[in-house]
């Protein structure tokens, strides 16, 4: 029996909701399949030609040696020691940037919020520049990465500290982030002004981002950080949905808005700091990935967060593949490729924007 609610019955509402949820689940499955395909295709590209079947045979042989055979020793070495770690690192880094951008946009209620625009990447860049030019910093064996990590965390702690002192409103946090971005950008410029050309070249190379230093050890560190941070953020997805309707509404429903905002920023900043410490500054992934996701499946953060992570992984890993193969043997900086890919894509999203998706 249906209950008439004007022109729309309860049964019709349920059918539409079920259909909408189904579309989100299908989108999530498609993203997972695309990542699997990307891993196979990207690993075939390079000086040594490999087929997709050879790549998957090498990968599955590691886990099921009784069912799969390695085509050759060369293929095994190329896949495991050269290509696969870089591809997986790009996917994991993109996942962290994508979900961090989605969370920042929700809690700050600003579609332009991202790790880059909030100054976290600029602070990491200053830490790296300090290590490259002056030789100052933390963790002697990992001077550049350690500096980038520490300064990225310092910037996020400053934003959270200001928010706690003045109130964790979106406006306060965004203005604090913009201030930090300009401050550290000016500091990097000042360091470069007095540095010798070789050191400046190193800073510029780091600032545009690179996957060239990806390794299994670094991938393990990043995977551990994501394994801790991602479940917490996804677990808070219902609170993010509530906070989207307004702070007062969220407070009336029992959500501690200030605590949620600060916790989300801390966790997101930890992920971003862990990523940029190894890759350098990478823009647009954290900005564009959440928008692509919301335009396709809507604003339900229960699905937006994991899908934004997968979209970010696809974008970053795909950009790295293009950067390696567009002008061989030259490998273009990944930050340049994400900018070239992100700018037209972002303009397309603006022109095709559906009212209400945000």
From TrEMBL:
Q: How does it sit in the membrane?
A: Multi-pass membrane protein
Q: Which domain of life is it from?
A: Archaea
Regions crossing the membrane: 25-48, 87-108, 115-136, 142-160, 172-195, 215-235, 269-291, 303-323, 330-351
| A Pfam family recorded for this sequence | FecCD
Q: Where in the cell is it found?
A: Cell membrane
Q: Which GO terms describe its molecular function?
A: transmembrane transporter activity
What GO biological process, any one, is recorded here?
siderophore-iron import into cell
Keyword flag Transport: yes
Q: Which controlled-vocabulary keywords does the entry list? A: Cell membrane, Membrane, Transmembrane, Transmembrane helix, Transport
The record's GO CC annotations read:
plasma membrane
Regarding protein family, the annotation reads: Belongs to the binding-protein-dependent transport system permease family. FecCD subfamily.
Q: Can you state the subunit structure given in the record?
A: The complex is composed of two ATP-binding proteins (BtuD), two transmembrane proteins (BtuC) and a solute-binding protein (BtuF).
Main role? Answer: Required for corrinoid utilization. Probably part of the ABC transporter complex BtuCDF involved in cobalamin (vitamin B12) import. Probably involved in the translocation of the substrate across the membrane.
Protein name, per record: Cobalamin import system permease protein BtuC
Taxonomic source organism: Methanospirillum stamsii
